[in-house]
Amino acid sequence: MRLADRLDRVRASQTQQVLVAVERLRQQGVEVIDLGAGEPDFPTPDHVKIAAAAAIEDNFTKYTAGAGIIGLREAIATHYAERYGAAYDATGVVVTAGGKQALYNIAVALFGPGDEVITHVPGWPSIVEQVHLAGAEPVGVRTSAEEGFELRAESVLEALTPRTRGIVINSPANPTGAVMSETELHRLADGLGDRDVWVILDLCYEQLIYDDTPHNLPGVLRDRLGDRAVLVGSASKSYAMTGWRCGWLLAPVAVAEAANAVQSHSTSHATSITQHATLAALTGPQACVAAMRDEYRTRRDTLFDWMNSDARFQVVRPAGAFYLFPDVSELLSPDERRTSADLALALLNEAHVAVTPGEAFDAPGFIRVSYAASMEQLREAWTRIQQFLG
Ligand code: GLU
Q: What is the CATH number of domain 64-275?
């Protein structure tokens, strides 16, 4: 069977494969604790569900404009203006089927053969694969556990070549939870000068920052590189809406139009019902977001303390998102579990705890443990891991 050449370079999403493995075991009746999937365990807030039901009742079940209903595009623009002072007109906003589609539209709209796109490693695999799908070349800049996986402007600037067309930054980052500092983003803007390079900021975890660190990256980016910047966001993590598939991008109008043109030939638009639900999420009460964030913070601190007190796990306390990303090389050996992928598989099959191997993020020797699970599940998972490891 002959597939398109581009598939030689593209692998199916490894983060999604963990979901499939868990599902398979559950179907066999195994009771798996899933710390693999990167998604909130909380239900979608009630007022959002009610808005979706009302949308169905009111027959908002037809096509919408490709870039989304205008009320939602305005609400998204308002969100970034009010939170970060990053002013965008609604015409620069495109609503997408998840943050992933926003990033994909942008990759296809801005990058092509011969172009290099810099991103940070360890990092979310879809960023790299989308660059491949666009025909361009991803260039990884490695961040280190010793520096808390913080992205330094200097390392990005060192990776620039005449072929660099874009830089994709995810902050807080999946899988490390690291938040890029405003100072580093200023340094990056200084170093870029007037170079013709796009900076794409993936803010999917923006509402999940637990410590008091200045993190107005959208504001800094809009001010310093507004004509070359794209912001990407999502309802998935902030409002526990992963399955609804709603994301968005904010960009200079010509870029938004290009991204919308790409989308117009694939999904057309995000689901009409989802758009109404997301409008309710963004404009309704925000106490639910704060409550979920507080709970994630408690879980982060608890799981971090447990893990940190076991010398076999080298773990950094993350500033955001909902993952711990420990170095587990102490637990690997040539004759038993050679790789972190072997370890993750053994944890799944023998301890019935799903985690994501670091290999998925181009970081062998690490595992990603999601704390988007109840305290009870985390306690049970940690007990199982300890028993398994002996
Ligand atoms: N973002 C989530 C994760 O990293 C969901 C899976 C995916 O879409 O890649 O686990």
A: 3.40.640.10
Instruction: HSE, CB side, 13 Å, CA atoms: give it for residue 224.
Output: 22
> In sequence order, what DSSP letters do the residues of 185-232 get, joined into one string?
HHHHHHHHTT---EEEEE-TTTT-B-S-----HHHHHHHHHGGGEEEE
Alpha carbons 288 and 284: distance in angstroms, whole number: 10
Quick: pLDDT tens for 17-73.
888 889 999 999 999 999 998 899 999 999 999 999 999 999 999 999 999 999 999
Q: How far is the CA of 235 from the centre of ligand 1 (A)?
A: 14
Residue 64's CB is within 10 A of a number of other CB atoms, namely 18
**Tokens found for residue 230:** 């794209």
Residues with CB under 6 A from ligand 1: 13, 15-16, 37-39, 100, 124, 126, 174
pTM equals 0.96
Greatest CA span in the chain, whole angstroms?
Answer: 62
Closest CA to 90 of 108, 109, 67: 67
Q: Which fold has domain 5-44+287-389?
A: Aspartate Aminotransferase, domain 1 (3.90.1150)
For residue 367, the cross-strand partners are: 357
Residue ID of nearest Cα to ligand 1 atom 9: 15
